[in-house]
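For practice. Any example?
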Amino acid sequence: MTDTATRPGAPRILIPALLIALLGTIVTVALDTVLLWWAALIIGVVLAFAAVVLVDRRMPEAERTGASGTKEEGTTLHRTLVVPTALVLSVVSGLLLAWFLDLSLIEPVAAALGAFAGSAAALLLYRRLSAMLALSFAAVFAAGIIAIAVTALVLFFSGIAPGATFARMVEYGTRPNSLVQIINDGTTYYLAAVAVAIGFKMKLFNIGVDGQYRLAALMAAAVGGWLVLPPVLSQIVIILVAVAVGGAWAGIAGYLKVTRGVSEVISTIMLNAIATGITAYLLNTDRLAVEISTNNIGTPPLPEGSWIPGIPAAFLGSEREIFGLVLLAAAVGVGYAVMLNRTRFGFELRATGQSQSAAEASGVNVKKMVFLSMLFSGMVAGLVGMPQLLGSSHYYALDFPTGIGFIGIAIALLGRNHPVGIAFAALFWAFLNQAAGILPFDGIPQEIAVIAQATIVLTVVVVYEVVHRWGRRYQQQQIGKELGTTVAGPAEETAPTGAASDSGDGTGDDTPGTGRGGEAK
Protein backbone atom coordinates (compact mmCIF):
# COMPACT_ATOMS: atom_id res chain seq x y z
CA MET A 1 0.00 0.00 0.00
CA THR A 2 2.78 2.41 0.89
CA ASP A 3 4.80 1.78 -2.27
CA THR A 4 1.74 2.14 -4.46
CA ALA A 5 0.83 5.39 -2.83
CA THR A 6 4.25 6.96 -2.95
CA ARG A 7 5.58 5.95 -6.37
CA PRO A 8 3.10 7.97 -8.44
CA GLY A 9 3.92 11.02 -6.38
CA ALA A 10 7.66 10.82 -7.02
CA PRO A 11 7.57 12.54 -10.45
CA ARG A 12 5.38 15.27 -8.99
CA ILE A 13 8.06 15.94 -6.39
CA LEU A 14 10.93 15.95 -8.90
CA ILE A 15 9.24 18.47 -11.16
CA PRO A 16 8.74 21.10 -8.41
CA ALA A 17 12.32 20.47 -7.25
CA LEU A 18 13.68 21.18 -10.73
CA LEU A 19 11.47 24.26 -11.15
CA ILE A 20 12.50 25.62 -7.76
CA ALA A 21 16.20 25.11 -8.54
CA LEU A 22 15.74 26.87 -11.88
CA LEU A 23 13.90 29.71 -10.15
CA GLY A 24 16.79 30.33 -7.76
CA THR A 25 19.29 30.13 -10.62
CA ILE A 26 17.40 32.55 -12.87
CA VAL A 27 16.96 35.10 -10.08
CA THR A 28 20.66 34.86 -9.20
CA VAL A 29 21.79 35.28 -12.80
CA ALA A 30 19.48 38.27 -13.28
CA LEU A 31 20.58 40.02 -10.10
CA ASP A 32 24.25 39.26 -10.71
CA THR A 33 24.29 42.00 -13.32
CA VAL A 34 23.44 44.69 -10.75
CA LEU A 35 24.58 43.21 -7.42
CA LEU A 36 27.61 41.42 -6.03
CA TRP A 37 27.48 37.72 -6.83
CA TRP A 38 27.09 36.61 -3.23
CA ALA A 39 24.23 39.03 -2.62
CA ALA A 40 22.49 37.86 -5.79
CA LEU A 41 22.95 34.23 -4.76
CA ILE A 42 21.53 34.80 -1.27
CA ILE A 43 18.43 36.51 -2.67
CA GLY A 44 17.94 33.78 -5.26
CA VAL A 45 18.19 30.93 -2.73
CA VAL A 46 15.92 32.73 -0.24
CA LEU A 47 13.24 33.19 -2.91
CA ALA A 48 13.61 29.53 -3.90
CA PHE A 49 13.17 28.51 -0.26
CA ALA A 50 10.03 30.63 -0.01
CA ALA A 51 8.71 28.84 -3.09
CA VAL A 52 9.49 25.50 -1.42
CA VAL A 53 7.36 26.46 1.59
CA LEU A 54 4.45 27.49 -0.63
CA VAL A 55 4.64 24.39 -2.83
CA ASP A 56 4.97 22.03 0.12
CA ARG A 57 1.89 23.45 1.83
CA ARG A 58 -0.14 22.81 -1.31
CA MET A 59 1.22 19.29 -1.79
CA PRO A 60 -1.20 16.44 -0.94
CA GLU A 61 -0.46 14.64 2.32
CA ALA A 62 -0.06 11.28 0.54
CA GLU A 63 2.94 12.58 -1.40
CA ARG A 64 4.71 13.55 1.83
CA THR A 65 4.84 9.98 3.08
CA GLY A 66 8.34 8.90 4.08
CA ALA A 67 9.74 12.35 4.72
CA SER A 68 11.34 12.41 8.15
CA GLY A 69 10.71 16.09 8.71
CA THR A 70 7.08 16.21 7.62
CA LYS A 71 5.85 14.46 10.76
CA GLU A 72 6.83 17.57 12.72
CA GLU A 73 5.37 20.14 10.33
CA GLY A 74 3.09 22.62 12.01
CA THR A 75 4.70 22.22 15.43
CA THR A 76 6.26 25.15 17.21
CA LEU A 77 9.70 23.51 17.11
CA HIS A 78 9.48 23.00 13.36
CA ARG A 79 8.51 26.62 12.71
CA THR A 80 11.03 28.19 15.08
CA LEU A 81 14.03 25.89 14.58
CA VAL A 82 13.82 23.51 11.63
CA VAL A 83 12.69 26.03 9.01
CA PRO A 84 15.30 28.72 9.87
CA THR A 85 18.04 26.08 10.08
CA ALA A 86 17.07 24.64 6.69
CA LEU A 87 17.12 28.15 5.18
CA VAL A 88 20.57 28.96 6.60
CA LEU A 89 22.01 25.63 5.46
CA SER A 90 20.62 26.12 1.94
CA VAL A 91 22.19 29.56 1.62
CA VAL A 92 25.52 28.45 3.13
CA SER A 93 25.76 25.39 0.87
CA GLY A 94 25.14 27.53 -2.20
CA LEU A 95 27.71 30.14 -1.14
CA LEU A 96 30.39 27.59 -0.35
CA LEU A 97 29.95 25.75 -3.64
CA ALA A 98 29.98 29.01 -5.62
CA TRP A 99 33.11 30.19 -3.80
CA PHE A 100 34.86 26.89 -4.46
CA LEU A 101 33.88 26.85 -8.15
CA ASP A 102 34.98 30.47 -8.50
CA LEU A 103 38.57 29.27 -8.04
CA SER A 104 38.48 27.53 -11.42
CA LEU A 105 35.43 28.95 -13.25
CA ILE A 106 34.32 32.42 -14.19
CA GLU A 107 32.25 34.21 -11.56
CA PRO A 108 28.80 34.18 -13.29
CA VAL A 109 28.97 30.44 -13.94
CA ALA A 110 30.12 29.68 -10.40
CA ALA A 111 27.32 31.83 -8.92
CA ALA A 112 24.70 30.17 -11.13
CA LEU A 113 25.82 26.65 -10.20
CA GLY A 114 25.95 27.59 -6.52
CA ALA A 115 22.43 29.02 -6.70
CA PHE A 116 21.16 25.88 -8.44
CA ALA A 117 22.68 23.64 -5.74
CA GLY A 118 21.48 25.83 -2.87
CA SER A 119 17.95 26.03 -4.30
CA ALA A 120 17.82 22.27 -4.84
CA ALA A 121 19.06 21.73 -1.29
CA ALA A 122 16.26 23.97 -0.02
CA LEU A 123 13.57 21.42 -0.91
CA LEU A 124 15.58 18.49 0.44
CA LEU A 125 16.38 20.22 3.75
CA TYR A 126 12.85 21.54 4.27
CA ARG A 127 11.35 18.10 3.66
CA ARG A 128 13.96 15.89 5.36
CA LEU A 129 15.56 17.90 8.17
CA SER A 130 14.34 16.57 11.50
CA ALA A 131 14.15 18.54 14.72
CA MET A 132 16.98 16.59 16.36
CA LEU A 133 19.35 17.13 13.44
CA ALA A 134 18.42 20.80 13.36
CA LEU A 135 19.26 20.98 17.06
CA SER A 136 22.71 19.56 16.28
CA PHE A 137 23.36 22.23 13.65
CA ALA A 138 22.07 24.90 16.04
CA ALA A 139 24.49 23.63 18.71
CA VAL A 140 27.44 23.93 16.32
CA PHE A 141 26.34 27.43 15.31
CA ALA A 142 25.95 28.53 18.94
CA ALA A 143 29.34 27.07 19.86
CA GLY A 144 30.96 28.91 16.95
CA ILE A 145 29.41 32.22 17.96
CA ILE A 146 30.56 31.78 21.57
CA ALA A 147 34.10 30.88 20.48
CA ILE A 148 34.32 33.87 18.15
CA ALA A 149 33.03 36.16 20.91
CA VAL A 150 35.55 34.85 23.44
CA THR A 151 38.43 35.19 20.96
CA ALA A 152 37.28 38.70 20.04
CA LEU A 153 37.25 39.71 23.71
CA VAL A 154 40.78 38.38 24.18
CA LEU A 155 41.95 40.39 21.16
CA PHE A 156 40.08 43.51 22.29
CA PHE A 157 41.56 43.52 25.80
CA SER A 158 44.98 42.88 24.26
CA GLY A 159 44.66 46.08 22.24
CA ILE A 160 44.18 44.30 18.90
CA ALA A 161 41.29 44.99 16.53
CA PRO A 162 39.23 41.76 16.33
CA GLY A 163 37.57 42.54 13.00
CA ALA A 164 40.83 43.25 11.19
CA THR A 165 42.45 40.14 12.68
CA PHE A 166 39.63 37.83 11.60
CA ALA A 167 39.56 39.39 8.13
CA ARG A 168 43.31 38.89 7.79
CA MET A 169 43.02 35.23 8.81
CA VAL A 170 40.21 34.56 6.35
CA GLU A 171 42.07 36.29 3.52
CA TYR A 172 45.26 34.32 4.10
CA GLY A 173 43.52 31.03 4.84
CA THR A 174 41.56 31.08 1.57
CA ARG A 175 44.55 31.60 -0.71
CA PRO A 176 45.11 28.73 -3.19
CA ASN A 177 48.33 27.48 -1.57
CA SER A 178 46.74 27.72 1.86
CA LEU A 179 43.78 25.64 0.72
CA VAL A 180 46.12 22.86 -0.43
CA GLN A 181 47.94 22.92 2.91
CA ILE A 182 44.60 22.82 4.75
CA ILE A 183 43.52 19.73 2.80
CA ASN A 184 46.86 18.00 3.43
CA ASP A 185 46.85 18.78 7.15
CA GLY A 186 43.17 17.89 7.37
CA THR A 187 43.92 14.46 5.88
CA THR A 188 46.27 13.51 8.72
CA TYR A 189 43.97 15.08 11.33
CA TYR A 190 41.05 13.11 9.96
CA LEU A 191 42.83 9.77 10.24
CA ALA A 192 43.89 10.55 13.82
CA ALA A 193 40.35 11.58 14.77
CA VAL A 194 38.80 8.43 13.28
CA ALA A 195 41.27 6.33 15.28
CA VAL A 196 40.20 8.12 18.46
CA ALA A 197 36.49 7.93 17.53
CA ILE A 198 36.59 4.12 17.25
CA GLY A 199 37.65 3.99 20.88
CA PHE A 200 35.11 6.63 21.90
CA LYS A 201 32.29 4.50 20.47
CA MET A 202 33.27 1.84 23.01
CA LYS A 203 33.69 4.42 25.78
CA LEU A 204 37.46 3.83 25.55
CA PHE A 205 39.86 6.78 25.70
CA ASN A 206 42.74 5.95 23.36
CA ILE A 207 45.25 8.66 24.27
CA GLY A 208 48.04 6.61 22.69
CA VAL A 209 47.36 7.53 19.04
CA ASP A 210 50.36 9.85 19.07
CA GLY A 211 52.81 7.12 20.07
CA GLN A 212 51.12 4.54 17.84
CA TYR A 213 51.42 6.57 14.63
CA ARG A 214 54.98 7.75 15.30
CA LEU A 215 56.26 4.25 16.02
CA ALA A 216 54.34 2.92 13.00
CA ALA A 217 55.75 5.64 10.73
CA LEU A 218 59.30 4.95 11.92
CA MET A 219 59.09 1.20 11.30
CA ALA A 220 57.31 1.65 7.95
CA ALA A 221 59.92 4.18 6.80
CA ALA A 222 62.76 1.88 7.87
CA VAL A 223 61.28 -1.10 6.03
CA GLY A 224 60.55 0.97 2.93
CA GLY A 225 64.00 2.53 2.94
CA TRP A 226 65.94 -0.73 3.23
CA LEU A 227 63.76 -2.94 1.02
CA VAL A 228 63.83 -2.39 -2.74
CA LEU A 229 60.49 -3.55 -4.12
CA PRO A 230 58.58 -2.85 -7.35
CA PRO A 231 56.15 0.08 -7.36
CA VAL A 232 52.67 -0.57 -5.93
CA LEU A 233 54.00 -3.57 -4.00
CA SER A 234 56.36 -1.26 -2.14
CA GLN A 235 53.55 1.13 -1.13
CA ILE A 236 51.36 -1.79 -0.03
CA VAL A 237 54.13 -3.25 2.14
CA ILE A 238 54.87 0.12 3.77
CA ILE A 239 51.20 0.74 4.57
CA LEU A 240 50.70 -2.80 5.89
CA VAL A 241 53.74 -2.46 8.16
CA ALA A 242 52.35 0.81 9.55
CA VAL A 243 48.92 -0.73 10.14
CA ALA A 244 50.43 -3.80 11.83
CA VAL A 245 52.72 -1.81 14.13
CA GLY A 246 49.98 0.65 15.12
CA GLY A 247 47.51 -2.14 15.79
CA ALA A 248 50.00 -4.20 17.79
CA TRP A 249 51.00 -1.22 19.95
CA ALA A 250 47.35 -0.35 20.72
CA GLY A 251 46.59 -4.05 21.20
CA ILE A 252 48.90 -4.07 24.23
CA ALA A 253 46.62 -1.59 25.97
CA GLY A 254 43.57 -3.60 24.92
CA TYR A 255 45.08 -6.81 26.26
CA LEU A 256 45.94 -5.19 29.60
CA LYS A 257 42.39 -3.84 29.79
CA VAL A 258 40.62 -7.17 29.31
CA THR A 259 43.03 -9.41 31.24
CA ARG A 260 44.22 -7.22 34.11
CA GLY A 261 41.63 -4.45 34.21
CA VAL A 262 44.25 -1.75 33.57
CA SER A 263 42.67 1.54 32.53
CA GLU A 264 43.37 2.27 28.88
CA VAL A 265 44.03 5.90 29.82
CA ILE A 266 46.96 4.93 32.05
CA SER A 267 48.32 2.24 29.74
CA THR A 268 48.19 4.35 26.57
CA ILE A 269 49.90 7.28 28.32
CA MET A 270 52.67 4.95 29.44
CA LEU A 271 52.89 3.39 25.98
CA ASN A 272 53.27 6.88 24.49
CA ALA A 273 56.32 7.43 26.69
CA ILE A 274 57.73 4.01 25.78
CA ALA A 275 57.13 4.66 22.07
CA THR A 276 59.00 7.97 22.37
CA GLY A 277 61.94 6.19 23.98
CA ILE A 278 61.97 3.45 21.34
CA THR A 279 61.92 5.92 18.45
CA ALA A 280 64.72 7.95 20.06
CA TYR A 281 66.76 4.77 20.53
CA LEU A 282 66.23 3.46 16.99
CA LEU A 283 66.60 6.82 15.25
CA ASN A 284 70.36 6.74 15.59
CA THR A 285 73.06 6.53 12.96
CA ASP A 286 74.34 3.35 14.65
CA ARG A 287 70.94 1.67 14.12
CA LEU A 288 68.17 2.66 11.67
CA ALA A 289 69.10 6.24 10.82
CA VAL A 290 71.40 7.91 8.33
CA GLU A 291 72.49 11.53 8.10
CA ILE A 292 69.91 13.55 6.14
CA SER A 293 71.50 16.98 6.55
CA THR A 294 73.94 18.72 8.85
CA ASN A 295 71.50 18.94 11.78
CA ASN A 296 69.07 16.19 10.90
CA ILE A 297 69.10 12.40 10.83
CA GLY A 298 66.43 10.01 9.64
CA THR A 299 65.68 6.67 8.07
CA PRO A 300 67.07 6.00 4.57
CA PRO A 301 65.00 7.93 1.99
CA LEU A 302 62.32 5.87 0.29
CA PRO A 303 63.10 5.01 -3.36
CA GLU A 304 61.07 7.06 -5.80
CA GLY A 305 59.07 3.98 -6.77
CA SER A 306 57.67 3.92 -3.22
CA TRP A 307 56.30 7.46 -3.39
CA ILE A 308 52.59 8.07 -3.87
CA PRO A 309 52.09 10.84 -6.43
CA GLY A 310 50.06 13.85 -5.40
CA ILE A 311 46.93 15.27 -6.99
CA PRO A 312 47.57 18.47 -8.99
CA ALA A 313 45.68 21.38 -7.43
CA ALA A 314 45.45 23.54 -10.54
CA PHE A 315 41.66 23.59 -10.08
CA LEU A 316 42.32 25.53 -6.86
CA GLY A 317 44.73 27.88 -8.60
CA SER A 318 47.75 26.43 -6.81
CA GLU A 319 50.94 24.92 -8.19
CA ARG A 320 51.23 22.62 -5.15
CA GLU A 321 49.87 19.09 -4.91
CA ILE A 322 47.34 17.47 -2.61
CA PHE A 323 48.45 14.28 -0.88
CA GLY A 324 47.46 11.27 -2.94
CA LEU A 325 46.53 9.44 0.27
CA VAL A 326 43.61 11.83 0.75
CA LEU A 327 41.73 9.11 -1.13
CA LEU A 328 42.82 6.59 1.49
CA ALA A 329 41.52 8.86 4.23
CA ALA A 330 38.17 9.10 2.42
CA ALA A 331 38.08 5.30 2.12
CA VAL A 332 38.79 4.97 5.85
CA GLY A 333 35.91 7.33 6.59
CA VAL A 334 33.52 5.34 4.39
CA GLY A 335 34.70 2.09 5.94
CA TYR A 336 34.22 3.54 9.42
CA ALA A 337 30.64 4.59 8.60
CA VAL A 338 29.78 1.24 7.01
CA MET A 339 31.31 -0.67 9.89
CA LEU A 340 29.33 1.27 12.48
CA ASN A 341 25.96 1.30 10.75
CA ARG A 342 25.88 -1.71 8.43
CA THR A 343 27.69 -4.56 10.21
CA ARG A 344 27.03 -6.76 13.19
CA PHE A 345 30.39 -5.78 14.65
CA GLY A 346 29.42 -2.10 14.51
CA PHE A 347 26.10 -2.80 16.21
CA GLU A 348 27.81 -4.76 18.98
CA LEU A 349 30.42 -2.02 19.28
CA ARG A 350 27.78 0.66 19.80
CA ALA A 351 25.70 -1.56 22.06
CA THR A 352 28.69 -2.34 24.29
CA GLY A 353 29.59 1.33 24.44
CA GLN A 354 26.05 2.22 25.53
CA SER A 355 25.82 -0.46 28.24
CA GLN A 356 28.22 -3.32 28.83
CA SER A 357 25.78 -5.14 31.10
CA ALA A 358 23.02 -5.00 28.50
CA ALA A 359 25.44 -6.17 25.80
CA GLU A 360 26.53 -9.12 27.95
CA ALA A 361 22.90 -10.04 28.55
CA SER A 362 22.41 -10.07 24.78
CA GLY A 363 25.28 -12.51 24.29
CA VAL A 364 28.01 -10.05 23.26
CA ASN A 365 31.56 -10.94 24.29
CA VAL A 366 32.47 -7.62 25.90
CA LYS A 367 36.14 -8.43 26.47
CA LYS A 368 36.52 -9.39 22.83
CA MET A 369 34.87 -6.13 21.72
CA VAL A 370 37.14 -4.06 23.98
CA PHE A 371 40.25 -5.70 22.60
CA LEU A 372 39.14 -5.48 18.97
CA SER A 373 38.11 -1.85 19.26
CA MET A 374 41.55 -0.93 20.64
CA LEU A 375 43.19 -3.05 17.94
CA PHE A 376 41.24 -1.37 15.12
CA SER A 377 41.83 2.06 16.65
CA GLY A 378 45.58 1.42 16.60
CA MET A 379 45.48 0.09 13.03
CA VAL A 380 43.89 3.33 11.83
CA ALA A 381 46.35 5.30 13.98
CA GLY A 382 49.19 3.59 12.10
CA LEU A 383 47.97 5.29 8.92
CA VAL A 384 48.23 8.81 10.35
CA GLY A 385 51.86 9.34 9.30
CA MET A 386 51.51 7.77 5.85
CA PRO A 387 50.34 10.86 3.91
CA GLN A 388 53.38 12.79 5.12
CA LEU A 389 55.80 9.86 4.69
CA LEU A 390 54.71 8.73 1.22
CA GLY A 391 53.59 12.08 -0.13
CA SER A 392 56.05 14.67 1.14
CA SER A 393 59.06 13.87 3.36
CA HIS A 394 59.79 10.29 2.12
CA TYR A 395 61.71 9.47 5.33
CA TYR A 396 61.17 9.57 9.08
CA ALA A 397 63.43 12.16 10.66
CA LEU A 398 63.71 14.31 13.76
CA ASP A 399 61.42 16.92 12.17
CA PHE A 400 58.57 14.48 11.48
CA PRO A 401 55.24 15.99 12.65
CA THR A 402 54.35 15.18 16.26
CA GLY A 403 51.32 15.81 18.46
CA ILE A 404 48.77 14.86 15.79
CA GLY A 405 47.30 12.17 18.04
CA PHE A 406 46.26 14.72 20.66
CA ILE A 407 44.79 16.97 17.96
CA GLY A 408 42.77 13.95 16.84
CA ILE A 409 41.14 13.75 20.29
CA ALA A 410 39.92 17.34 20.02
CA ILE A 411 38.69 16.85 16.45
CA ALA A 412 36.82 13.65 17.36
CA LEU A 413 35.05 15.54 20.14
CA LEU A 414 34.33 18.44 17.81
CA GLY A 415 32.96 16.14 15.11
CA ARG A 416 30.90 14.11 17.60
CA ASN A 417 32.57 10.87 16.38
CA HIS A 418 30.60 11.07 13.12
CA PRO A 419 32.63 10.47 9.92
CA VAL A 420 31.19 13.54 8.17
CA GLY A 421 31.37 15.74 11.27
CA ILE A 422 34.99 14.70 11.81
CA ALA A 423 35.83 15.68 8.21
CA PHE A 424 34.47 19.22 8.65
CA ALA A 425 36.11 19.53 12.06
CA ALA A 426 39.49 18.41 10.66
CA LEU A 427 39.35 20.94 7.83
CA PHE A 428 38.26 23.70 10.20
CA TRP A 429 41.10 22.89 12.61
CA ALA A 430 43.59 22.89 9.75
CA PHE A 431 42.18 26.21 8.54
CA LEU A 432 42.77 27.86 11.91
CA ASN A 433 46.33 26.54 12.02
CA GLN A 434 47.08 27.74 8.51
CA ALA A 435 45.30 31.10 8.83
CA ALA A 436 47.16 31.91 12.04
CA GLY A 437 50.48 31.62 10.22
CA ILE A 438 50.18 35.15 8.86
CA LEU A 439 49.50 36.80 12.24
CA PRO A 440 53.14 37.12 13.44
CA PHE A 441 53.93 39.19 10.34
CA ASP A 442 51.28 41.67 11.51
CA GLY A 443 52.56 41.72 15.09
CA ILE A 444 49.66 39.60 16.37
CA PRO A 445 50.30 36.55 18.61
CA GLN A 446 49.82 33.30 16.71
CA GLU A 447 48.35 31.75 19.85
CA ILE A 448 45.03 33.40 18.95
CA ALA A 449 44.27 30.30 16.87
CA VAL A 450 44.96 28.07 19.88
CA ILE A 451 42.53 30.11 21.98
CA ALA A 452 39.87 29.79 19.30
CA GLN A 453 40.42 26.03 18.94
CA ALA A 454 40.26 25.36 22.66
CA THR A 455 37.19 27.54 23.12
CA ILE A 456 35.37 25.85 20.25
CA VAL A 457 36.03 22.36 21.61
CA LEU A 458 34.90 23.37 25.10
CA THR A 459 31.75 25.13 23.94
CA VAL A 460 30.80 22.35 21.53
CA VAL A 461 31.05 19.73 24.28
CA VAL A 462 28.99 21.83 26.71
CA VAL A 463 26.37 22.97 24.19
CA TYR A 464 25.95 19.49 22.76
CA GLU A 465 25.37 18.07 26.24
CA VAL A 466 22.68 20.68 26.92
CA VAL A 467 21.08 20.01 23.53
CA HIS A 468 21.26 16.25 24.06
CA ARG A 469 19.45 16.46 27.38
CA TRP A 470 16.77 18.75 26.00
CA GLY A 471 16.38 16.61 22.89
CA ARG A 472 16.02 13.49 25.01
CA ARG A 473 13.14 15.06 26.91
CA TYR A 474 11.61 16.25 23.63
CA GLN A 475 11.76 12.73 22.18
CA GLN A 476 10.11 11.28 25.28
CA GLN A 477 7.34 13.85 25.07
CA GLN A 478 6.78 13.05 21.38
CA ILE A 479 6.63 9.33 22.15
CA GLY A 480 4.14 10.04 24.92
CA LYS A 481 1.96 12.05 22.54
CA GLU A 482 2.06 9.33 19.90
CA LEU A 483 1.11 6.71 22.48
CA GLY A 484 -1.70 8.93 23.66
CA THR A 485 -3.13 9.20 20.15
CA THR A 486 -2.81 5.52 19.24
CA VAL A 487 -3.74 3.73 22.48
CA ALA A 488 -7.40 3.85 23.43
CA GLY A 489 -8.91 3.71 26.90
CA PRO A 490 -6.92 4.27 30.10
CA ALA A 491 -3.58 4.06 28.24
CA GLU A 492 -4.55 7.26 26.51
CA GLU A 493 -4.08 9.10 29.78
CA THR A 494 -1.28 7.12 31.37
CA ALA A 495 1.18 6.99 28.45
CA PRO A 496 1.87 10.74 28.15
CA THR A 497 1.97 11.10 31.93
CA GLY A 498 4.53 8.32 32.29
CA ALA A 499 6.66 9.76 29.52
CA ALA A 500 6.54 13.20 31.02
CA SER A 501 7.39 12.02 34.51
CA ASP A 502 10.32 10.03 33.13
CA SER A 503 11.76 13.04 31.40
CA GLY A 504 11.09 15.63 33.98
CA ASP A 505 14.35 15.36 35.89
CA GLY A 506 16.38 13.34 33.40
CA THR A 507 17.25 10.71 36.03
CA GLY A 508 16.58 7.02 36.22
CA ASP A 509 18.27 3.67 35.90
CA ASP A 510 19.38 1.86 32.77
CA THR A 511 17.55 -1.40 33.36
CA PRO A 512 15.11 -2.71 30.75
CA GLY A 513 11.50 -1.83 31.39
CA THR A 514 12.14 1.61 32.86
CA GLY A 515 11.71 4.98 31.18
CA ARG A 516 15.46 5.43 30.94
CA GLY A 517 15.88 2.20 29.03
CA GLY A 518 13.76 3.58 26.19
CA GLU A 519 16.44 6.15 25.37
CA ALA A 520 18.87 3.62 23.93
CA LYS A 521 19.31 4.07 20.22
About this structure: Confidence is low (pLDDT under 50) at residues 1-10, 62-68, 488-521. The beta strands are 290-293, 296-298, 311-312, 321-322. The domain at 175-443 is CATH 1.10.3470 (ABC transporter involved in vitamin B12 uptake, BtuC).
